[in-house]
Every structure is written in C-alpha cells, then in structure tokens.
Amino acid sequence: MKAILENTLLGQLVAERPGRARVLERLGIDYYFGGQRTLKEACAAHSLDSEAVARALRASDTRQPDEEAKDWRQVSLSELIDHIITKHHAYLREMLPILSYLMDRVVHAHVGRHPELRLLLLEFEALRAELESHMGKEERVLFPLCERLEIDLRPDSPPRPALHLPIGVLEQEHREAGRALARMRELTRHFTPPGDACSAYRVLLKELADLEADLRQHIHKENNILYPRAIAAQAARTPRK
Ligand SMILES: [Fe+2]
Ligand SMILES: [Fe+2]
C-alpha cells in the first residue's frame, strides 16, 4: 500500500480521495498544476520523507468523508461539467467584480505606504481578464464537445475536432493563472495584512486567499479528472482504421 501511494500520480491520489488535498496543501505540495508527478517525485523536490507523507495520507483516508468527497471520476461528464459551472465558474463570476471594486478602494487608500499594491492591482486585473475569457472558452467550446461524447451515439455523426488541442491551450492558461496567483501571494506576504491595514484591506486579502483555494479545487477537477476523462472517452469512440 505504501509503495502504491508513493508511486501514484498526485492528481490521481486526490481524484481517488478528495480529502487528501488538505494534507498535500498543508505541506505545500501542488497536486493541481503538478498532478502528473508521483508522490515520491514531489516529496523529493520538497525534501520531504515520502513514507511519512504516505502515512499522513492514509490517516486522512480513515477520517469521515466530507461533502467535497464525492468521487468525480464516477459521475457522468455532464454532471461533472454542471458542478464545475455551478460551483466554480459561478463563484468566479460573482467574486471577480467584487474583488475589483475592493482592490480599487484599498489601492487608492494605501498605495502611499504600500506601493506594491499597484503591482497587485495589475496582476489581479490581468488574472481576472484571463479567467473570464478562459471560462467562456470552456463553456462555449470544450464543455459542449465533452457533453456530446456521451449523448451523440450516431455512427455517422460528423467528425469531432481532436480534444487534445483545445485542452492543451486551456491547461497552458491554468498554468498562467497559477503563476499570477503565486506572484500575488508573494506581493502580499502570503496574503498577510500589514499592521496598518484597514478592514477593507483585511477582507481583500482573505478573499484573495479564498480565490486561490477555490481555483486549486477547480483546476484539479479539470486538469486531473475532466480533461483526461474526455480525451479517453473520445479515444474510445474513434473507430480504429
Ligand atoms: Fe473552469
Ligand atoms: Fe479551466
């Protein structure tokens, strides 16, 4: 069991038991962008004892599963897509404009003593534009193609575009969002408010930390579950020549 866990890809480890995400997050191990590494490789990169981490993961498996513990590998692609849109995309569409408003107020009030806030604003606005365009591409292009894989059973249905091309672009955009969040984390000293922060400043940093946490879950479900499942479903339907 120990060796199995250590040689399993991180994305797969969390797809099997979503509760494992918390253990990996506490250790600073990225399972969402870096889901294609084994636990052993990730532990080596962080100078962590992979046997101890595997033990911590097994201990978390025995705890009561929570609401988020649903196994998204077992539901239909359309149920998973529906969940991503109603939970993660809806959250972003609600929060991104609120964060823009809050950021403007905080920058205006505090930029004199905290000049790094100007960079934070630029970084956030670029991330917001990127995420809004990215969700549009998923909802208009990729998700409908994925849903058709399950419902269009006609043998003579028109040829479908290869999914790995749009998925490659979307995965690249996920990596860019990850880099923007890492820069924002650095500019805010891990989202820690300075001593002179007003309540709006504190709320802003708390909400940015929540945004990062939600994006981890969101990107994990797409990179490690939805996209590979869609590519496998398309491959299974493509007649061999
Ligand atoms: Fe998405
Ligand atoms: Fe995405």
How would you describe this structure to a colleague?
This protein is mainly alpha-helical. 71% of the residues lie in helices and 0% in strands. α6 (77-110) runs antiparallel to α9 (199-237), α7 (116-151) runs antiparallel to α8 and α8 (164-187) packs antiparallel against α9 (199-237). The longest helix has 39 residues, at 199-237. The chain starts with a helix and ends with a helix. The mean pLDDT is 89.
Précis, in short:
By secondary structure, the protein is an all-alpha fold. The chain contains nine helices and no strands. One fe (ii) ion binds next to helix 7 and helix 8.
Based on CA atoms alone, the radius of gyration comes out at 20 Å
- Helix percent reads over 70%
Average pLDDT score: 89
List SSEs in N-to-C order.
HHHHHHHHH
Overall body shape = globular
- The total count of helices amounts to 9
* Proportion of residues in β-strands: under 5%
Could you name the ranges where pLDDT drops below 50 across 5 or more consecutive residues?
none
Bound molecules: fe (ii) ion
Notable characteristics:
mainly alpha; single chain; binds fe (ii) ion; 9 helices
Task: Spell out the blueprint of helices and strands.
Layout: H1 2-6, H2 10-16, H3 20-26, H4 39-45, H5 50-62, H6 77-110, H7 116-151, H8 164-187, H9 199-237
Helix pairs in contact: 2-9, 6-7, 6-9, 7-8, 8-9
This protein binds fe (ii) ion (2 copies).
